[in-house]
Amino acid sequence: MNELLTSPAIVAACLLTAAGGLFWWRRGVRRERERLRGAGYSLIHELKAYSAWLELLRGEPALGVEPEQLAAAQALRNAGAVAQMAFPQLAPPMLRLLQGDNHLMAYLRQQSLVQPGDRGYCQIRDAQEDLIGDIITRCRMLLGEHGQPWRATDIGSEFFNSVGLSTSF
Questions:
Q1: What is the pTM of this model?
Q2: Average pLDDT over residues 15-37
């Protein structure tokens, strides 16, 4: 009986089975990590698009359009969906970001033009930028990346073009 358990064919079969199982497990872990990284980059992109939109609002007339109908509402909804599906641990800061957006939309409804030095708008925007920075930092930590900290939106035209917004600066 012991000879059967120690035969080279049985040992080789057990080793091959273990190696195959390890290979498939590592492949699954790698795929999940890639899926999570893709979701993280998507979340960061949507948050940057929202931040860029906030910067565009500075000094722009409301034009009688409801703020919820503008492109940022979609970027924020997309970010919320990605965070909910892939990063449930980001729910508290995402909730604060959505509440801040509601506060911003209420403020914008009361204003016909946001002036560059408008303290109310600047305070709301700064709070939103802080939340965006916090979410991006947490997302990068969840992805295992510890790169440069978020420094608000660089409002270069190539970023606006990449998110489908035109610039009129």
A1: 0.67
A2: 83
Q: Token match 């035109």: residue?
A: 166
- Given a contact cutoff of 8 angstroms between Cβ atoms, the answer to whether 153 and 159 are in contact is yes
| Contact (CB, 8 A) for 85 and 39 | yes
Residue 52 in contact with residue 153, Cβ under 8 Å? yes
Q: 113 pairs with which residues across the strands?
A: 61
Tokens (6 digits) for 163: 């998110």
Using the CB atoms, write b or e for 150-167: b if 16+ within 10 Å.
bebbeeeeebbeebebee
In sequence order, the β-bridge partners of residue 61 are: 113
Give 112's DSSP letter.
S
Q: Which two tokens stand for residue 130?
A: 């802080």
Lowest mean pLDDT among 90-104, 109-123, 154-168: 154-168
- The encoded tokens of residue 70 equal 């503008």
